[in-house]
C-alpha cells in the first residue's frame, strides 16, 4: 500500500476471525467506518492443510479494503488469485463425522425378577443420521433368592435392539433421545432342594421404550443415563406345588421398568 494504515485516527477499522471447520479454514472479515457502520463483509474459505494460503488471502483482502478511494487497483485474473479468493463451485459445509459410542452401565430392574434386581448393561449406539441412531444392548441380572428358606433363585440375561430419535441437541456435547425396540431374555430358575417341574430357561420378551440423556464432557468420554419401560408379551408365572396344592412364588409383571447409569467411549 506504500503507507501504514494502522493509526489511532484511522477512518476504517478491520475485524477478523479464523477457525478450522473439519478439513477447511473459514475466515470472516468485517470493515467499519469511523462511526461504526459496516462498510464491507467478506468470507473466505480454503481447504489447505496449512494456513499460509489463507493468510495470504487475508492480507490481500485487507489491503484492498483499506486502500484509499481512487487508488488505482491493477486488474487481476482469476488465475492470479490465491485459491481462497478464486471463484469456486459452491460446496456444502462439511458436517463433523458422527461417531458411534459404547457404554457399560449399572442397572436396576423391576418386574422381571422378584423385587428389584441389580445388574449390568453393555450398550452400543451407531448414528445413521443427524436425528437417528441404531442401538443394541446386552443386560445381565444375577440370581435373586426368594422363599422363606431361600430355596429358589432367579436371574435373567436379555438382549435388545432398536432405533433412537435424537430429539433434542442444544449443544454438540449433550443430547436427549427417545429409543424404541424389542427385548428378549432367558430367565434362569435355580432350586436348592425342591425338584423343578420344568427345568431350563424360561423365555421373557417385551417391546421397550426408553428416554436417554447423553453427555460428552471431555474428548471421547461419554456419560449416559436412561430409563426403560418394557411391555411384556411373553412372561411367566412361577408356582410351588406341594402334593395336590400349589401356590404362587412370583409372577412376572406385565410392565417392567429399569433405570441405568453408565460411562463409555466414542469410536
Helical fraction equals under 10%
Q: How far do the termini sit from each other?
A: 51 Å
* Overall shape: rod-shaped
Number of DSSP strands? 13
Estimated share of beta-strand residues: over 45%
Q: Any idea of the CATH class of the largest domain?
A: Mainly Beta
Given as residue ranges, the uncertain stretches (5+ residues, pLDDT < 50) are 72-78
Count of DSSP H/I helices: 1
Element order, helices and strands?
EEEHEEEEEEEEEE
Task: Supply the CATH architecture of the largest domain.
Answer: Beta Barrel
Strand order of the largest sheet: 4-5-6-7-8-9-10-13
As a whole number of angstroms, the C-alpha radius of gyration is: 32 Å
How many independent structural domains? 2
Q: Sheet with the most strands?
A: 8 strands, antiparallel, barrel
> How confident overall, as mean pLDDT?
85
Give the class from helix and strand content and strand pairing: mainly beta
Q: Kindly report the CATH topology of the largest domain.
A: Porin
Your description of this structure?
The chain is mainly beta and 267 residues long. It has two domains: 69 residues, 2-Layer Sandwich (Double Stranded RNA Binding Domain); 166 residues, Porin. Helix content is 6%, strand content 60%. The strands form three sheets. It has an eight-stranded antiparallel β-barrel. The longest helix has 15 residues. It is rod-shaped. The two termini are 51 Å apart. 22% of the residues are buried. About 3% of the residues have low confidence.
